[in-house]
Amino acid sequence: MNSIAITVSIFEKFEIRSCVKWILANEFKCLALQFPDNDLSYSADVLSCLQSELTSNVVEFYIIGDTNNQCCNDLINVQYCHAEALIHYGHSCLSATLPSPLPIYYVFYQQPLDNLTFPHSDKFCLVYYDPCYSEAIDKLRNEQSLERIIYSRIDVLTKEKNDNQFTLYGRSVSSLPHDLDSSLYSIFYIARDADSMSLTNFRLYFHTYEFYSYNFHSKQFDLYPSTSKQLQKRLYLIECAKQTSVYGLLVNSTSLLNQSDTIHRILSYLKQLFHRNDKTYYILLMNTMSISKMNNFSSINCYVLCSSCSENQWYQQKQFNIPLISVYDLYLAFSSDNSWNNYSLDLEHILKHLSTFEEDKEEYLSTKTNELVLKHPNHLVQMSDSNHQPYQRTWWGLELTTSKTSVDENDQKSVAELKHGKSGIAAGYDHELI
């Protein structure tokens, strides 16, 4: 493929002209470009194309890659480079429907879609899809006028807001002819691949409905297999959570870390939930999750992933030897509310149902736990309580001491005196004359 063809494909795939139009309309001077790992090799070409279209404007760009959750907006690194806005390339979990501290433009790599043929049924057809088919669906929506076919919309791509709309995983449907009911609606999903986490999430939520997924080989919708095994796994983990005495709350999502109000609301609810059930918990900030890291906390019997990302791969981790549950799983474990008949990992959907409690947002001090507390989106403060003896530990060097064992004062060596170190580089430190 020659260079001209490559440039044309880059302009189309990465929507260069649309990005330039958005940059000029908002008069941005510093932007961050977030690429998925598979497309980092194109980042230099994309940057070159953007700069060629912005010849009369001086705009500084930063390239962000190797993110923990590629589908989430890496707002932490955006803050590091002091960018005014972010352009997100590739698939998104659409967790950005939560309030964002800066403007975000999405390039979903739009894909074509043939005319859809729906199975004959008296039910309404509720159609959901991955963001890369949003333009193709808009075209079909204008061409087809069947009342029984209802297409959803991607929230980040539309400015229309309706208080009566039904929103799930960043997709909304307004003006439903009837309330959602499995006897009145069938669910159809168009996924970019069979392993799409969005497809799995929607299937779990609508597990009592007739659910169809689009088959690109046969060009038709196939009845999706039952999710009973997946639901049984979640129910098993919920039962494990009921029997657990010590929990670890993991704050992990790169997008949630910038939502301080959301974090405080979640932690406020979970704190009250644990206190009512006399449970012990630790709050941990872990940018990069790993099994080896979490196994270091031997006293923790169950982890709760506090994340805005509904497509976190850790929910599907099979090698993890400690139960890992969602906020909704924990809600089901201790709540007597049986009104939720649909399994959801949508944080925005969950927050609408969680009870809120009035408490001081500056302090999260428990009389029964040692906590790592998030007082600022990117800072941790450690608090301890002397009354909580079973999990009180101290270290002297490499030796672990507890309330039962202590280090003899005579054996304690004095701490080395701190002195001002060298500055500069090895080729020539600042204090060296030559």
From TrEMBL:
Keyword Iron: yes
Pfam families on file: Diphthamide_syn
Family membership: Belongs to the DPH1/DPH2 family. DPH2 subfamily.
Cofactor: [4Fe-4S] cluster
One GO term (biological process): protein histidyl modification to diphthamide
NCBIfam families given in the database record: diphth2_R
Source organism per UniProt: Didymodactylos carnosus
Pathway field: Protein modification; peptidyl-diphthamide biosynthesis
GO molecular function, one term: metal ion binding
UniProt protein name: 2-(3-amino-3-carboxypropyl)histidine synthase subunit 2
Keyword terms of this UniProt record: Iron, Iron-sulfur, Metal-binding
Keyword hit for Transmembrane: no
InterPro entries, per the entry: DPH1/DPH2, DPH1/DPH2_1, DPH1/DPH2_3
